[in-house]
Amino acid sequence: MLILFTPVFGRLVKTWTHDELTKAADAIVVIEAVSTKKSDIAPPFASKDLPKENYQAWITTFKVLTSFKGAATIDEPLQILHFTYSDKVNGVTNGACFVKFAIGPLERSTTTTENGVGKGTQTSYKLYPVWLAYLKHREDGRFEPATDHYDAAPSFMELDRMETAFR
């Protein structure tokens, strides 16, 4: 019985509606990650309790598939600044809601077996992760999450993946 009444500590995270995200965003786009690289940009949320060495900045370049709002065009790549935990951080309780982008194509493979012995591997299809993104324009020409960097995940929604047959 005592376990049922143990206090639980948590961090409140805002739940964003579509209308709030749309209002906060300078650009709303459907994008596909092309490349990503580390950056030395300091996190804007760094403080005494959140030391900057605990975080890694990333700049990911995307191909714009569709633009619903803003000046992002399909012809030009788009770069987004985002953060993750650095290698110095092992476990986090009530941590940030960061986002990482997989660079496609991601293959789905199956291994065939006969009597418990592997006979071969077959690639059934290749997937390209596609994201709906709500973004703010930065002064340096890049973009950042419309929410904030510490809780960036609500600014991105992974859509059903496109198969190579439809590309």
CATH class: Mainly Beta
Oligomeric status:
single chain
Mean pLDDT: 83
Helical content stands at under 10%
Second CATH tier, the architecture? Beta Barrel
Helix-strand makeup class: mainly beta
- What count of structural domains? 1
The biggest sheet amounts to: 7 strands, antiparallel
Question: Helical region count?
Answer: 1
- The fraction of residues in strands falls at over 45%
Note down, in words, how this protein is organized:
The chain has 167 residues and is mainly β. The protein has one domain (15-88, 95-166): OB fold (Dihydrolipoamide Acetyltransferase, E2P) (Beta Barrel), CATH 2.40.50.120. The protein has 1 helix and 7 strands, in the order H-E-E-E-E-E-E-E. It has one helix at 18-24, and strands at 27-39, 55-69, 78-85, 106-114, 117-137, 143-145, 156-163. Strands 1, 2, 3, 4, 5, 6 and 7 form a 7-stranded antiparallel β-sheet that branches. Strand 4 and strand 5 form a beta hairpin. The longest helix is centred in the first third of the chain and has 7 residues, at 18-24. It is globular, with a radius of gyration of 20 Å. The termini are far apart.
